[in-house]
Amino acid sequence: MTMGSNTDFVLAVEDLTVAFDGFKAIDALTLYVDRGELRVIIGPNGAGKTTLLDLICGRTRASNGSIKFKNREMTSLPEHEIVRAGIGRKFQTPSIYENLTVFKNLEVSFPRGRGVFGALAFACTPDVRERIEQVAVEIGLQDALPMEAGLLSHGQKQWLEIGMLLMQEPELLMLDEPIAGMSVRERELTAELLDRIRQRRSMIVIEHDMDFVKKIATKVTVMHQGKILAEGPMDKVQADERVIDVYLGH
Amino acid sequence: MNTANPRARLLPEGIGSILILAVVVFAVMPLVFDIFRLNLIGKYLTYAFVAVGLVMLWGWGGVLSLGQGVFFGLGGYMMAMFLKLEASDPESTKIQSTPGIPDFMDWNQLTALPFWWKPFHSLPLALIAVVAVPVLLAFVIGFAMFKRRVGGVYFAIITQAVALVLMVLIVGQQGYTGGVNGITDLKTMLGWDIRTDSARYILYYVNAGLLFAAILVCRRIQRSKLGTLLLAMRDKEDRVRFSGYDVANFRIFVFCLAAMLCGIGGAMFALQVGFMSPSFVGIVPSIEMVIFAAVGGRMSLVGAVYGTLLVNFGKTYFSESFPDLWLFCMAGLFIGVVMAFPDGLAGVWNKHVQPRIDRRFAAKRPAAVAAPAADPAVAPGRA
Predict the structure, then answer these.
(1) Chain centroid to CA B272: how far?
(2) What ipTM was assigned to the predicted interfaces of this complex?
(3) Is the N or C terminus of chain A more exposed, i.e. has fewer CB atoms within 10 Å?
(4) Which A residues in the span 75-114 are in contact with B, Cβ-Cβ below 8 Å?
(5) How many other C-beta atoms lie within 10 A of the C-beta of residue B137?
(6) CB contact under 8 A, B245 and A84
(7) Which of B6, B225, B236 sits opposite A113 (nearest CB)?
(8) Which residue, B44, B46, B43, B65, is CA-closest to B56?
(9) Same domain, A17 and A75
(10) Do A161 and A174 fall within a single domain?
(11) Does residue A204 lie in a domain region?
(12) Whole-angstrom distance, CA of residue A116 vs CA of residue B322
């Protein structure tokens, strides 16, 4: 493992490599995310986008390199410690507790009582309830709180999972294709939601929808074959010949 | 909580059904059956501890253990060791070549009590061991397995292996454990004869009281955030992990909880039945215990108790009448329940019986009184 350098960035990924049976899914990748930035990662299928998020949140272990979150090394921490440090992860397919109510889904995500005996003693006090209602308003599900989460529409499930992340008050949110399967109207609402979230947090979003990317991105990173092909503002990246070749098409 | 969950099977047990079960166990059974049968029911109710533990571990925690007999056996042996030492005072064992040690030790040419038997001269230490030894073993197994994310079928197979290992160990170390016969001829506890009818009544009630305490504790856990988390990690393990929880710790906890209940059940078994043997430790009894919970309904604490009673009544009846068929019946029952009624008796009750009662008494209050008569566990008992 190489030692990463200390920076002002909220997230500093340096020289990150992971190999599966010799195949380098991520190859000596270096990436910095600023505080308050919304970074969108695009790239063709198999470029290593989801693998990168998996590495940052600890789901996959790096073969080499460093991931520093607020200058703290993350590569050796277990997943729950990474979450507690302030990194939230939303999965590609909505991952919510379908049999529990929307309220319970959010309650479980509240960052208190995370140990076994803490959970046993946990009480839904007024401050917890207030926070749940606050987040529910934020994600537009304030009327759905008593509903079983499995009955929500696909888009609402996506929002609920984002809401569950917000409950944890993360400083960095990582969203894997948050608008997949959403209607046009839902996409607009999601763009607004992400815009509000970004006021106080940093975000990494994987997305394929170029119109959506244009709307939300501060900066875009294009990945290809485990490496970064191009990085910068959307218009600059879109004009990049190599990006057009491998991803956007002529 | 103002958020009602529409799916009944995910709600912790209603206090009503627990009260009905209490009436059945504390009043109906002792009134209907003579002391011989009641002692038998008391024995079944010791298995119910295991079934209740499995509801927490398997139903709520999503972890299937096929080795719960290990913890039941350990609890039973801890109790039996104490009772055996009390039964082996120098006076009553004076015909042995070494008086004052358990008879099976003498038969196996042991001339002194092994050091690890000595703490079992003390009842408080024995009672602590009843709980602590199963919990400790569960903690070690749980820590080794769950921290490495071993789960599902692999975990079930490993628990089977543990059951087999313990059984072989007990059978093989005859001089220390009583071997295949187990620890027999248990007579008194602190001078109190446990074989008399009055003692059997008292033990039945102590056992039932402990069982209800266990059910209430489990219900409390189900209603806590821990219960919600167990359900959550059963269905979406990664989501729970990425909400900042150490999933393994919760599994270890619920495994230890189930082991503790097994240990208590085992100790009550030794007290009521008067012996403990390796036949309650191995693979077959461990699987039978899973069937108790499956038949009763693996999400329902109360259902698990009914399931245990029903299967055991069935076992007693069938194995007396058709000893060769019993194992096939048992297998058929298990397959049938899993295929047709995955939520067991409790599921059938919630789906078919409860709605009818609700409809009939829609004008009045929901009928709690009508339930014991329809109680599935009572009918086969009359056979």
Answers:
(1) 14
(2) 0.91
(3) C
(4) 78-80, 83-84, 88-89, 91, 95-104, 107-109, 111, 113-114
(5) 18
(6) no
(7) B225
(8) B65
(9) yes
(10) no
(11) yes
(12) 48
Strand partners, A32: A12
In a domain, B310, yes or no: no
Nearest residue to B25 via CA among B344, B309, B349, B315: B309
Residue B131: give the domain boundaries: 32-297
- Inter-chain contact B226–A168, Cβ cutoff 8 Å? no
From first to last of its 383 residues, chain B has per-residue pLDDT tens of 333 333 444 556 778 899 999 999 999 999 999 999 999 999 999 999 999 999 999 999 999 999 999 999 999 999 999 999 999 999 888 899 989 899 999 999 999 999 999 999 999 999 999 999 999 999 999 999 999 999 889 999 999 999 999 999 999 999 999 999 999 999 999 989 999 999 999 999 999 999 999 999 999 999 999 999 999 999 899 999 999 999 999 999 999 999 999 999 999 999 999 999 999 998 989 999 999 999 999 999 999 999 999 999 988 888 888 888 888 888 888 888 888 888 888 888 888 888 888 888 775 554 444 444 334 433 333 32
Range of the domain at A72: 1-86+170-250
pTM, whole model, 2 decimals? 0.90
Q: Which two tokens stand for residue A202?
A: 């940093």
The encoded tokens of residue B323 equal 């000893």
Measure B237 CA to nearest chain A CA, in Å.
Answer: 10
Has residue A91 been placed in a domain?
no
